[in-house]
């Protein structure tokens, strides 16, 4: 049997239009800038991860490959994927720094993918999952959408059976946020599914309390409020929990693992929001369990977070934001009747589409005007 040591890598730079402007009360993006990172072991297995940069084009592909070869690959070459996945580092001094390209999450995904493949297990089973599906809520990244497009998106989500809905709030005029909640109720037929709102730190604690009171008077019950105030205002988040007991406080998205620990110690959230880094998410889930706090999954690239969501006990939600990335892989995760399912293939199960590698590979940055139309992909019913 051939060894499982990492022997080579490949990067593919991808750039294309989005099918809509996505964003929140602070930012917006109209194009996708992505690097597919593939780590290859001595047995020829390929572990896949993705880098995404939201608001500016990535460096040329040759520079990205050079940066990975200089900064990262010397630490991976010749190493067993399993040993890398389980290794506990000691962050000190100069080894705590940003990379030229943000490879961190892509490395975790690719390494854990290889580890699970070499073990012959789907990643979610390797992580200890005892179930194969988890509920999904529909999230529009909708702050910049017209009322018509907003209504169309959530109307389709309701028809597809998503288990809840999350909209972006935090507009300078609170009446616009209330208007969007009214539109959501009409678009979804007021079907009784939970409604969540995400302010992306747009408010103060006082503004949050006033907004929730206004929404309640207008007949809108809010299941959770996500990141209403700045991420490190633990005292303010805790006071919101106590002042608004009918709405859960969901926080932690913008915090690293150390910050999440401090958030939990401050008793400043009802729900801990995690994303895509496998090792950090599993550690955060353990910390949340120690504090008896529910874990909820925000966006992870191509919903790779389903593997950790299935493995952590008590996770009831995973976010799906209709980002039109599914064309990048041969077979995305299946979503049926509002449930997302893990792949049965060894690893996380995502493989870069060779057609995409040919059609959307852009070795050099392109101006937006030079980008082709947005890819079209329809999720099977």
Helices and strands in order:
Blueprint lengths: L5 E18 L4 E14 L4 E8 L7 H11 L1 H4 L4 H6 L17 H16 L3 H4 L6 E7 L7 H14 L4 E4 L5 H15 L6 E4 L6 H13 L6 E3 L7 H10 L4 E4 L5 H9 L5 E4 L3 H13 L3 E4 L8 H6 L6 E3 L14 E2 L2 E3 L12 H6 L22
Parallel strand pairs: 4-5, 4-11, 5-6, 6-7, 7-8, 8-9, 9-10
Antiparallel strand pairs: 1-2, 2-3, 4-13, 12-13
Helix pairs in contact: 6-7, 10-11
Multimerization state: single chain
Q: Structural class of the helix and strand makeup?
A: alpha/beta
The helix fraction, in percent, is: 25-40%
Number of strands: 13
Q: Which parts are unreliable, with pLDDT below 50 for 5 consecutive residues or more?
A: none
First-residue to last-residue Cα separation: 41 Å
Shape: globular
Please tally the helical runs, counting DSSP H or I stretches of 4 or more residues. 13
Mean pLDDT metric:
95
Q: Tell me the strand percentage band.
A: 15-25%
H/E topology pattern:
EEEHHHHHEHEHEHEHEHEHEHEEEH
Sketch the major β-sheet.
10 strands, mixed
Characteristic terms for this protein:
single chain, 381 residues, alpha/beta, three-stranded antiparallel beta sheet, 33% helix
Structure write-up:
The chain has 381 residues and is an alpha/beta fold. Helices cover 33% and strands 20% of the residues. The protein contains 13 helices and 13 strands. The protein has helices at residues 61-71, 73-76, 81-86, 104-119, 123-126, 147-160, 174-188, 205-217, 234-243, 257-265, 278-290, 306-311, 354-359; strands at 6-23, 28-41, 46-53, 133-139, 165-168, 195-198, 224-226, 248-251, 271-274, 294-297, 318-320, 335-336, 339-341. The strands form 2 sheets. Strands 4, 5, 6, 7, 8, 9, 10, 11, 12 and 13 form a 10-stranded mixed sheet that branches. A 3-stranded antiparallel sheet has the order 1-2-3. Strand 6, helix 8 and strand 7 (224-226) form a beta-alpha-beta unit. Helix 6 (147-160) packs parallel to helix 7 (174-188) and helix 10 (257-265) runs parallel beside helix 11 (278-290). The longest helix is centred in the first third of the chain and has 16 residues, at 104-119. It is globular, with a radius of gyration of 21 Å. It starts with 5 loop residues before the first strand and ends in a 22-residue tail after the last helix. The mean pLDDT is 95.
